[in-house]
């Protein structure tokens, strides 16, 4: 049998290899093409087809490279190296979904392929051999888990809060995560720069594990944080991927970056821990409440679905979405676990103060020391206990950092000389020392006024320790029948309930025995599995396309877009619906009053419940900056022909006609004509501060819309 590797064919291969070695990629590719045109594309020439793809890829001829790799795959779909090279190609094409699939396929075929493993880990994912892959679509959808909050928090703290524990365990679980067609990648995006940066899972695990160590010092943590930041790599989320913010979603400077990702077809899901800043503002700084109101408004308008940490918070968020946002976004509770991460190593506790405490009877309270946590009630109770029992009263131990509006209490206990007498306060201790204090306490107390969950209640029960907690908000949901409850506003009622297990040790022992025998904690592994599976289930139910990414706005309402508008509506207990998420092209971030367009041409788009082809009236409140100008104006195209309106210094509502497009979308293009000077170094054109719309042929709808605009008619004109 004559093989196609002699004579001219052999010479072509030799020449192609020489050109490849010289990095003359395009020339080498042409030689491989010549060879394959003679020898054919079959099992015998498979490796040369792959080399052709490699040379075309390195020459920047990406489409031709993909054709070559596809031809090679039809011949042999069990080559780890082929899928490695396909991964490299898709990476160059910034197709993260396809490159992730190819690299995982390469690693599945050969777990010793360290290049594939390295690429998986470099993209931020955890390399798992033989991860399940879909047979048909050669893409991996990704849950991009935003860990920015954890990294920022770690810069300033040597112990974790409840929110950080959630993120930490969601990351640690990635070593065991498998879901057909899905992966999870931690990210720390630069939202303002439209850059999504993956954080290596291993770097995050290394940082998280520091918190389990007695050597958890600030300098070591900072080095680990820096390593995580320095190791980030840019990634390109695909249509249908999910961005999940499981931490403090309100720390983002604004949601414009998330909005732009949504407009590219991503799915957005925040994990809401509570609405206390809105529901219980007296326990939060005013500035923090205002920021939360604004960020909650923006986040919810962009959300495809929302998760919460308890059924109580889920119910609260549903009311907010329905009554405040006039929407029906799905809300699902993924209830937090009651498991505290146990350390496997035996540590020697060197903290002399802790060693002193555990040699005495003591009651433990774990929480940030701030006004909402109600430590004042415990001080009052212990003053009464000591008045009755003297030194026979157990010690009281606080574990937590000093928080907000606590100066008066702190000054009081210092002036009274309580600290290190019968009251011990531990700030920023490692988790292993906190675990030690849990193990040897008599019981725990948690008299918080309000909580989204109340993780220390569950932690106490995990250690078999009885807990006395408040009977408000979510806390009974966490503790169930294993916890005794007090009214956090009534010291006199709380006193006998807290006193009983101190003076009646048989009662305490029976209570503790019941917990050991009957309490079954929800594990972190169960929570993480449920969390990711629910995201996948919700994401699979969503039609991910450009149309579905547009925000829904209700008709016949005055809709504004400034920070102050949100706060005013919140203060007046009115619905908060904004046009902020409808800014799709060339708009600056929203200001107190609305927003400026950043170019002459700007676009607005939003979803309605109207049918394609219907006509609507759109009211836009527009104006320009104050300067001498020769009649600048704006051309508006809403799909029903161009319409013009003057731009003056005075905010004026103009009525335009638009036509509903596919999917119920209204898409409006604006063009500013005339002279627009730069203001403070920025090019600003159209000022947009108000909006409304209604059906074109519905008189009652028009009247309702005009009535919605009447409150501003005194200060603004309404013109056709």
Explain this structure.
InterPro entries: Glyco_trans_1, TPR-like_helical_dom_sf, TPR_rpt. The chain has 26 helices and 27 strands. It has a six-stranded parallel β-sheet, with helices on both faces. Strands 15, 17, 19, 22, 26 and 27 form a six-stranded mixed β-sheet that branches. The chain has 720 residues and is an alpha/beta fold. Helix 12 links the parallel strand 5 (242-245) and strand 6. The chain folds into four domains: 7-122, Tetratricopeptide repeat domain (Serine Threonine Protein Phosphatase 5, Tetratricopeptide repeat), CATH 1.25.40.10; 141-333, Rossmann fold, CATH 3.40.50; 352-521, 3-Layer(aba) Sandwich (Rossmann fold); 559-719, Jelly Rolls (Sandwich), CATH 2.60.120. Mean pLDDT is 92; it is low at 1-5. 42% of the residues lie in helices and 17% in strands.
């Amino acid at each position: 049998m004559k093989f196609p590797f002699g004579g001219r064919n052999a010479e072509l291969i030799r020449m192609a290899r020489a050109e490849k070695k010289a990095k003359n990629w395009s020339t080498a590719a042409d030689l491989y093409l010549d060879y394959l045109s003679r020898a054919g594309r079959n099992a015998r020439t498979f490796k040369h087809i792959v080399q052709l793809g490699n040379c075309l890829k390195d020459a920047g001829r990406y489409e031709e490279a993909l054709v070559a790799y596809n031809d090679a795959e039809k011949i042999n779909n069990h080559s780890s190296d082929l899928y490695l090279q396909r991964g490299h190609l898709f990476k160059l094409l910034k197709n993260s979904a396809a490159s992730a699939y190819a690299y995982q396929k390469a690693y599945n075929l050969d777990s010793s392929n360290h290049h594939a493993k390295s690429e998986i880990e470099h993209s931020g994912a955890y390399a798992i051999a033989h991860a399940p892959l879909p047979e048909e679509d050669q893409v991996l959808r990704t849950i991009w888990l935003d860990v920015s909050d954890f990294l920022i928090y770690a810069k300033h703290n040597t112990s974790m809060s409840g929110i950080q524990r959630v993120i930490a365990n969601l990351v640690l679980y990635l070593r065991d995560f498998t879901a057909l067609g899905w992966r999870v990648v931690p990210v720390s995006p630069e939202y303002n720069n439209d850059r999504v940066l993956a954080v290596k899972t291993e770097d995050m695990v290394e940082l998280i594990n520091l918190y389990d160590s007695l050597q958890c010092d600030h300098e070591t943590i900072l080095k680990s944080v820096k390593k995580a930041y320095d190791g980030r790599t840019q990634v390109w989320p695909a249509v249908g991927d999910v961005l999940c913010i499981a931490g403090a979603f309100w720390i983002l400077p604004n949601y414009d970056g998330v909005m732009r990702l949504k407009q590219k077809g991503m799915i957005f899901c925040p994990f809401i821990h509570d609405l206390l800043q809105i529901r219980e503002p007296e326990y939060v700084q005013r500035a923090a409440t205002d920021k939360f109101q604004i960020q909650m408004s923006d986040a919810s308008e962009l959300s495809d679905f929302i998760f919460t940490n308890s059924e109580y918070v889920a119910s609260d968020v549903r009311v907010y979405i329905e009554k405040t946002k006039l929407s029906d976004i799905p809300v699902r509770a993924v209830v937090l676990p009651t498991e505290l991460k146990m350390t496997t190593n035996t540590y020697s506790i060197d903290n002399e103060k802790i060693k002193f405490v555990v040699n005495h009877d003591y009651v433990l309270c774990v929480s940030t020391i701030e006004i909402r946590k109600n430590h004042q009630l415990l001080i009052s109770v212990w003053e009464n206990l000591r008045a009755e029992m003297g030194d026979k009263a157990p010690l009281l131990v606080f574990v937590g950092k000093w928080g907000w509006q606590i100066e008066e209490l702190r000054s009081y206990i210092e002036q009274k000389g309580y600290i290190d007498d019968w009251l011990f306060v531990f700030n920023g201790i490692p988790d292993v020392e906190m675990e030690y204090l849990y193990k040897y306490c008599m019981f725990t107390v948690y008299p918080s006024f309000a909580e989204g969950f109340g993780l220390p209640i569950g932690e106490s029960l995990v250690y078999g320790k009885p807990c006395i907690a408040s009977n408000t908000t979510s806390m009974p949901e966490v503790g169930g029948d294993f916890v005794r409850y007090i009214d956090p506003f009534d010291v006199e009622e709380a006193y006998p309930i807290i006193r009983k297990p101190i003076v009646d040790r048989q009662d305490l022992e029976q209570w503790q025995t019941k917990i050991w025998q009957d309490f079954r904690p929800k594990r972190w592994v169960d929570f993480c599995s449920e969390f990711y599976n629910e995201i996948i289930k919700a994401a699979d139910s969503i039609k991910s396309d450009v149309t579905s990414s547009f925000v829904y706005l209700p008709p016949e309402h005055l809709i504004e877009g400034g920070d102050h508008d949100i706060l005013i509506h919140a203060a007046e207990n009115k619905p908060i619906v904004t046009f902020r998420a409808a800014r799709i092209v060339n708009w600056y971030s929203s200001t107190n009053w609305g927003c400026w367009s950043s170019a002459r041409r700007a676009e607005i788009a939003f979803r309605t419940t109207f049918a394609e082809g219907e006509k609507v009236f759109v009211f836009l409140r527009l104006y320009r900056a104050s300067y001498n100008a020769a009649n600048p104006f704006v051309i508006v195209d809403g799909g029903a022909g161009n319409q013009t309106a003057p731009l003056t210094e005075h905010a004026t509502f103009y009525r335009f006609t638009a036509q509903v497009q596919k999917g119920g979308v209204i898409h409006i293009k604006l063009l500013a004509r005339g002279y627009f000077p730069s203001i403070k170094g920025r090019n600003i054109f159209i000022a947009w501060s108000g909006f409304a719309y209604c059906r074109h042929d519905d008189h009652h709808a028009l009247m309702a819309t005009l009535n919605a605009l009447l409150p501003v008619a005194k200060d603004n004109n309404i013109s056709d």
